[in-house]
Design a protein that fits this description.
It contains 10 helices and 32 strands. The protein is of the alpha+beta class. The protein folds into 4 domains: 305 residues, Glycosidases (TIM Barrel, Alpha-Beta Barrel); 104 residues, Jelly Rolls (Sandwich), CATH 2.60.120.260; 71 residues, Immunoglobulin-like (Sandwich), CATH 2.60.40; 146 residues, Sandwich (Jelly Rolls), CATH 2.60.120. The strands form 7 sheets. The protein has an 8-stranded parallel sheet with strand order 7-4-3-2-1-12-11-8. Helix 3 packs parallel to helix 4, helix 5 runs parallel beside helix 6 and helix 7 crosses helix 8. The protein binds beta-L-fucopyranose (FUL). Beta-L-fucopyranose binds next to loops.
């Protein structure tokens, strides 16, 4: 079990050098800042005027420094998003910073960000969207040449690149030089990936290519499945596999580890009212990404000024402080340890003798990945009352596995390899004690029922929960939570738990106006299972993202969109925005069949005369199924609301929605 043993033969698929470098990066950001920032959109259509790009205080160094403060080791810049606007003065198209007002058309965002990364010791990566809703030749051979040329510029002129981020999104329709039409393509062949791979290998041999050297984890929520293999049967851009991206394939022929990406805010681009994921959520995602052998790729969205917002910076710094606190002292290194290999009943194991009692709740284990992914499963035992007792078990290790376990005290631990495909080769084992308030089982959740009663739940009865409803940080002097309270008109609830001298991470939840007096007037089709606890059109009116309206009919043509529902808001309201909460799919968040990606919202005073209040696409909802808020151009007085799902992701043949709501103008 030692890496010095020259007799050890590698097992199965093996990583390339570029992949090992990428694994070591562990944490990095994906920065979206472009035309959509200025238009408050997630996907631009491709008809935006370059003039709109005009940040008032653009500062690439602030971005790089923020990443450094957060402990990230790399930064990937979206150099071109689906709207086709290039952040560098490319020779391939006029649709770029060259024709913007910013720096009189002489600026180059890519160059400044690459230089800032070099200055602050961050690895630099680029994202260049294959789908281009601006280019007139998109869908034809001419564009493919342009696209390859764009990649060539990016891979040649800006120094070393550690990752080339390519996304698979293609919604078909776009401006395409004024044609305003749908141009479907077959993404597996149209872009001539073999050329892209060849060029990248030549120009940037150490860069990993998204879809080829690394894979999408299957969701944009930032987590891998509990069992997540590094190996996969094929690259995911030219071929399709039935193997879930989230789990990978134990016997996959290729080493294609997964990247867990997610936006720090709700969307990938900056939207002022998007909630920011809080430090506790980031700690959880760290354990579910890096802690499951993947990398953690945090989406940052600079605002219209061209700066990462102060609130985002504060959250990232606090998260870093928590990660540093958790991993400050490795008990395996700091306490005198005696390590022995032992054969526990039929199973190889490593025993650590600590000489005195240690207290821990986090285990880290790493495989020496140059030798392949060898461990199938293992158990962690502790020595208590004169015998071994099993504390935790897990499958799949790979580059790194972190387990958060019950806080335990012992003088001896044992790692038992219960199943392995080749003798385990371990790169490292660590044990840590995370402060009680950072252990995930102290998690607080805030829920609201249909009557508008807010309940704050926490598994740990020892914590005193304090909360606020005015947006301020809860402190010990804030109201103590004793029983559910009313939040009829909606708002933001923030809560934190306090114990001894420690406080838990802050948790917050935003609610629209309560829908206690709302009712369903009619629906075009409902699920026949509406006595089931999860489904039924009424479920649109609770605040539970796990329950939903689901159109169902044996004849799929009938359950397919368009479908609509009419809701009575219980009285006259002045509505400024409308909301749709998608159903988050299965346990892994990577199936969102039935989620609308095109919608119409109508409003009416009398359920007779209706006005179309908003119509459009829920951009990127397939990959990032978060709460959608549609702001109206101006507030509309109404009592009735009609939501129509006119199309769903992947052309699916039923509609599934968790919630519909409205935001009222506050007096
Ligand atoms: C997706 C895109 O469609 C989103 O807009 C975003 O850029 C995300 C990171 O990748 O595929």
């Amino acid at each position: 079990m030692s890496t010095n043993d020259t007799a050890i033969k590698p097992y199965g698929a093996l990583p390339e050098k570029r992949q090992i470098l990428w694994h070591n990066t562990e944490l990095y950001s994906l920065i979206h800042f472009s035309m959509s920032t200025f238009l408050d959109k997630e996907w631009g259509y491709g008809d935006e005027a370059p003039d709109l790009f005009n940040p008032s205080a653009f500062d690439a160094e602030q971005w790089a420094l923020t990443c450094r403060y957060a402990g990230l080791k790399g930064l990937i810049l979206v150099a071109k998003h689906h709207d086709g606007f290039c952040l560098w003065p490319t020779k391939t198209t006029g649709h770029s910073v060259k024709n913007s007002k910013w720096r009189d058309g002489k600026g180059d965002v890519v160059a400044e960000v690459a230089a800032a990364c070099r200055k602050y010791g961050l690895k630099f990566g680029v994202y260049c969207s294959p789908w281009d809703r601006n280019h007139p030749e998109y869908g034809r051979a001419g564009y493919v040449k342009v696209y390859h040329e764009q990649l060539r510029e990016l891979l040649t002129n800006y120094g070393p690149v550690f990752e080339l981020w390519l996304d698979g999104a293609n919604g078909g329709d776009g401006c395409y030089g004024g044609a305003n039409e749908k141009r479907p393509i077959d993404g597996s062949v149209y872009y001539q990936w073999d050329e892209v791979v060849k060029m990248t290998r030549e120009l940037q041999p150490d860069a990993v290519i998204f879809g080829f050297d690394i894979r999408f984890i299957g969701n944009e929520c930032g987590f891998a499945r509990e069992t997540s293999w590094t190996t996969y049967p094929c690259n995911t851009f030219e071929s399709e596999s039935k193997v879930p991206l989230g789990s990978g394939d134990r016997n996959g022929a290729l080493w294609i580890p997964a990247e867990c990406d997610f936006p720090l805010r709700g969307g990938w681009f900056f939207h002022e009212n998007d909630a920011i994921k809080q430090p506790d959520k980031l700690v959880e995602l760290y354990f579910k990404s890096v802690g499951r052998g993947c990398t953690m790729d945090i989406g940052l969205a600079p605002d219209k000024r061209g700066l990462i917002h102060e609130d985002d910076v504060a959250v990232l710094k606090e998260w870093k402080r928590r990660i540093d606190t958790i991993f400050k002292t490795d008990l395996v290194k700091s306490v005198h340890v005696n390590t022995t290999g032992e054969i526990a009943p039929e199973e190889p194991a490593i025993v650590f003798e600590f000489g005195n009692i240690v207290k821990f709740n986090v285990l880290e284990i790493k495989e020496q990945i140059e030798f392949g992914q060898r461990i199938d499963s293992f158990c962690l035992d502790i020595w208590q009352n004169g015998e071994w007792s099993e504390l935790a078990s897990a499958t799949s290790v790979g580059y790194k596995r972190l387990l958060m376990v019950r806080t335990s005290e012992t003088g001896r631990i044992r790692i038992r390899f219960t199943k392995f495909s080749a003798v385990p080769v371990i790169a490292g084992i660590g044990l840590y004690l995370a402060p009680a308030c950072m252990v995930l089982d102290t998690k607080i959740s805030i829920v609201r029922d249909r009557n508008g009663d807010v309940e704050i739940r926490c598994g740990n009865g020892g914590l005193a929960i304090h909360y606020t409803t005015d947006g301020s940080e809860p402190a010990r002097k804030s109201p103590l939570y004793l029983k559910p309270f009313q939040l009829h008109g909606g708002g933001i609830v923030k809560a934190a738990g306090f114990m001894d001298d420690a406080g838990t991470p802050l948790v917050s939840a935003t609610f629209g106006c309560s829908r206690s007096d709302w009712r369903v007037v009619r629906v075009s089709l409902d699920s026949p299972f509406n006595n089931n606890r999860e489904a039924g059109v009424e479920k649109l009116l609770d605040d539970n993202p796990d329950t939903y309206w689901h159109t169902y009919h044996k004849d799929k043509k009938l359950s397919a969109p368009p479908h609509d529902v009419v809701l009575d808001m219980g009285g006259e309201r002045l509505v400024e925005a409308l909301t749709m909460m998608p159903h988050l799919g299965g346990d892994y968040g990577d199936s969102n069949d039935g989620t609308p990606d095109k919608y119409e919202f109508y409003l009416s005073m009398d359920d007779i005369k209706w006005v179309l209040a908003a119509k459009g696409e829920f951009a990127n909802i397939k990959a990032n199924p978060c709460m959608q808020t549609v702001h109206l151009e101006k507030p509309v007085k109404a009592r009735y609301l009609r939501f129509a799902a006119t199309h769903v992701v992947d052309n699916g043949n039923y509609v599934k929605v968790a919630g519909i709501g409205a935001v009222e103008v506050k007096n």
